[in-house]
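Subgroup meeting minutes
Present: P.N., E.W., G.H.
Scribe: E.W.

1. P.N. recapped why we're keeping a running log of single-chain structure predictions: easier to compare across weeks, and new members can see raw inputs and outputs side by side.
2. G.H. added today's entry (86 aa).
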Amino acid sequence: MFGKNKCCPVVSTDCCPVDPVYETPIQNCIQKDYVHEVVHIVPIHTNVVNNHIYKHTYVPEYTCSEENICTNVNDNCSGFGNFMNN
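Output recorded in log:
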């Protein structure tokens, strides 16, 4: 056919090597997610109020006292009254 230095004919399946054609670059965008755990301290205070309720009830407490007295009755009988009048 043609020599080693010759190029391929216009219509032929046998071709000579050509330099590569550089296309416009395709840019890939990859998103990587990084999760960072941030600890938040939330103070919670509980206040307990103890309410002491005093319910007052009144119970009567009765007391009793006793007194003994003596009464002398002189009925002037049996002649005893003359003795007492002296």
